[in-house]
Every structure is written in structure tokens, then in C-alpha cells.
């Protein structure tokens, strides 16, 4: 691995081998998502607790302070929307020159395996890897499932992760699922967890995060579970304790409640 690639990955993955990415890229296909209508305001109290920010170029330019020193993972795929015909019909939206100009530490794009656009998204990933490897920029593949949430099982996600790693992704972002060790065991590159099942409580979020970390994930890429929470700062601090201090779910939940109650005083 050349120095530039190694250096950028070291910015994202902390010395303990773990990472906590904060995604605010949802608007690229959802528009002004709830609690993300003003992304700059949303991240102000949160960014210092994250290891990196996953964001589109438009929001980065217009809503993120240029003095920010947190690494940026730039979302570089898009072209579809929630009101369109098919979320899987994405393309690459951002040139390598723009990626370098915006000083991104990594880039991320979605692949939609098992859809009619499977080949196109996998070829997009391959082309992106080809370009970014020339400049030492790691590519994070996002194993998207669009609206077909029932696909989030270990067999499917293990297939997706392995294929994207085989095509050159340096990191893979995927969903947590039951038997998550089957996903990480078959993937030769680091796996970062996105959301999991719909959770009713903060404790449930901490439980699936802890489970995934014990079963081979190196970290998390959680947005809505943080900034849509009524108490986002206590939530991000508690999750950070799970990721970087190996806090157990009940310990993290106790920390969340302690911080939440302090904020009410």
C-alpha cells in the first residue's frame, strides 16, 4: 500500500482499529430529510465526536466550515430520487479532479446487487476504484438495497461485501443483520456498519452496534440513529463509547441517560 493511501485510511480508522463515520448524505436522494433540513446546524454539536463525515459535495461546500479538520468521505454516486422509478439506477456524479479539489480523504458510492442495474453499478465501482487508486484515495462501497429492506440477511450481504471487495473497494459499508459474522468473515477488507433493523429504543441501537463490532465490524456509519434522536449529543457520545471504549450496551445506555438528564437541568 502506498503512503498516500495508507495515510488517508489512517485518518479514517483510528489507532484502536475502530471508526465512527457520521453520514449526512441522505439528501442526495431524499431531499430535506427530517432533522437534516439545515445540515450545517445539525452537525455543529456532533462533528467533534465523529471520526469522519460522509457528505455530498454540495453540502460540504455550503454547510460545512472549511476550517473543519475532520476527514471527509465524499459521496460520489447519485442520479435517482425517492420519487423516481428506480433507486438502483445510479451513476458517478463527481470527477476525480473534484474529489482532489475538495480534499476528500475517501469517497463512497452505492452498489445495487441483485437489481437490473447490478452490472452498471458494479462497473461504476470498478471505474471509480481505477481512478482513485491512481491518487491514493480509498473507495468505500455501500451495499445499498433501495426499498427492498427484506434483502438485509447475512447470505445476501455477505455476497455483496465480497463482490465489492473483489472489485477493489478498500472499505465496505453494509447493514447489520443476524449472523453478522458470516458477512465479515467472507470480506477481506474492513466492514463498517450502517443501520440495522428499525429500533424502538436507544438500547436496541447500542445492542446491534455492539454485536456487530464483536462479530468483526471495525466501526459504524450511523446518521439517523444519531441526529434524529431527541438527544443527539448524548446518543453520539454513548455510541462512541461502544465503538472506541468497547462499552457494553447497558453501560452505554446508562451513559446516554446520564448525559440526557444532565442536559435537562
Model description:
The N and C termini lie far apart (about 50 Å). The protein has a single domain, classed as TIM Barrel (Alpha-Beta Barrel). It is built from twelve helices and ten strands. It has an eight-stranded parallel β-barrel with strand order 1-2-3-6-7-8-9-10, surrounded by six helices. It has about 260 residues and is α/β, with parallel strands linked by helices.
Please tell me how large the radius of gyration is: 17 Å
Number of helices: 12
Element-level helix/strand string = HEHHEHEEEHEHEHEHEHEHHH
Structural class: alpha/beta
Give a count of the beta strands, DSSP E runs of length 2 or more.
10
User: What do we call the CATH topology?
Assistant: TIM Barrel
Across the major sheet, the strand order is 1-2-3-6-7-8-9-10
- The CATH architecture name reads Alpha-Beta Barrel
Rough outline: globular
Oligomer: single chain
For this structure, what is the CATH class?
Alpha Beta
Percent in helix: 40-55%
Largest sheet: 8 strands, parallel, barrel
Strand content: 5-15%
Low-pLDDT runs:
none
Number of domains: 1
Within CATH, the superfamily carries the name Aldolase class I
CA distance, first residue to last residue? 51 Å
Question: In summary, what is this structure?
Answer:
This protein is α/β, with parallel strands linked by helices. Helix content is 43%, strand content 14%.
Amino acid at each position: 500500500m502506498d503512503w498516500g493511501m495508507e495515510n488517508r485510511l489512517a485518518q479514517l480508522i483510528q489507532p484502536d482499529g475502530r471508526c465512527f463515520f457520521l453520514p449526512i448524505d441522505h439528501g442526495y436522494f431524499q431531499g430535506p430529510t427530517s432533522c437534516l433540513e439545515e445540515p450545517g446546524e445539525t452537525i455543529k454539536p456532533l462533528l467533534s465526536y465523529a471520526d469522519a463525515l460522509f457528505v455530498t459535495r454540495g453540502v460540504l461546500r455550503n454547510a460545512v466550515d472549511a476550517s473543519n479538520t475532520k476527514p471527509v468521505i465524499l459521496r460520489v454516486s447519485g442520479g435517482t430520487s425517492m420519487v423516481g422509478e428506480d433507486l438502483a439506477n445510479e451513476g458517478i456524479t463527481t470527477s476525480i479532479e473534484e474529489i482532489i479539489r475538495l480534499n476528500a480523504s475517501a469517497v463512497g458510492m452505492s452498489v445495487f446487487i441483485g437489481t437490473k442495474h447490478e452490472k452498471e453499478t458494479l462497473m461504476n465501482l470498478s471505474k471509480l476504484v481505477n481512478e482513485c487508486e491512481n491518487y491514493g484515495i480509498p473507495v468505500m462501497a455501500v451495499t445499498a438495497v433501495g426499498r427492498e429492506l427484506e434483502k438485509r440477511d447475512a447470505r445476501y450481504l455477505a455476497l455483496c461485501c465480497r463482490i465489492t471487495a473483489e472489485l477493489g473497494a478498500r472499505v465496505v459499508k453494509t447493514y447489520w443483520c443476524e449472523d453478522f459474522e458470516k458477512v465479515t468473515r467472507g470480506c477481506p477488507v474492513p466492514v463498517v456498519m450502517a443501520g440495522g433493523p428499525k429500533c424502538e429504543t436507544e438500547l436496541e441501537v447500542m445492542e446491534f452496534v455492539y454485536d456487530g463490532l464483536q462479530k468483526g465490524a471495525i466501526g459504524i456509519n450511523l446518521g439517523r440513529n444519531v441526529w434524529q434522536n431527541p438527544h443527539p449529543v448524548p446518543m453520539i457520545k454513548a455510541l462512541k463509547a461502544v465503538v472506541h471504549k468497547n462499552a457494553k450496551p447497558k453501560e452505554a445506555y446508562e451513559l446516554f441517560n446520564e448525559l440526557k438528564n444532565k442536559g435537562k437541568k
